[in-house]
């Protein structure tokens, strides 16, 4: 991610220099400057998103769950080696879930998808997805502590 941020920063700076070098008196350059300004704006938006791990400008607390950072951490943790006993316990726990709970739970927890993305893929409401994931988490906690 750091490499991508560096590349976007460099590209944004180059585009900004190009925009400033265009002649504002020339009609063709004015149009080009407008296009380049839009590109610079888009690059800065993307940079802010990458740096902070959430959509720029969000004022509500819903983005505080920071699913984007969780995805980054998930990528760093893969692959995790588990022994045969742990694998068997994991399978037993997952088999206690209904098919829908298991699907939603794995898409959210293992794949790092947001509730919205899961709802879109499965053609269900976000509220239903949240309910399935919450129930699955409760069942997993019960099984693990038992």
Account of the protein in words:
This protein has helices spanning 2-21, 27-52, 67-77, 84-95, 99-110, 115-122, 126-145. The protein has 146 residues and is mainly alpha-helical. Helix 5 packs across helix 7 and helix 6 crosses helix 7 (126-145). It starts with a helix and ends with a helix. 8% of the residues are buried. The model has no long low-confidence stretch (mean pLDDT 80).
Topology:
Blueprint: H1 2-21, H2 27-52, H3 67-77, H4 84-95, H5 99-110, H6 115-122, H7 126-145
Tags for this model:
75% helix, 7 helices
Inertia-based shape: elongated
Q: Per DSSP, what share of the residues sits in E-state strands of 2 or more residues?
A: under 5%
Helical segment count: 7
Parts with pLDDT < 50 across at least 5 consecutive residues: none
Order of helices and strands: HHHHHHH
Radius of gyration: 23 Å
Helix content: over 70%
What is the tally of beta strands? 0
The assigned structural class equals mainly alpha
Largest sheet: none
Average pLDDT for all residues:
80
End-to-end Cα distance: 40 Å
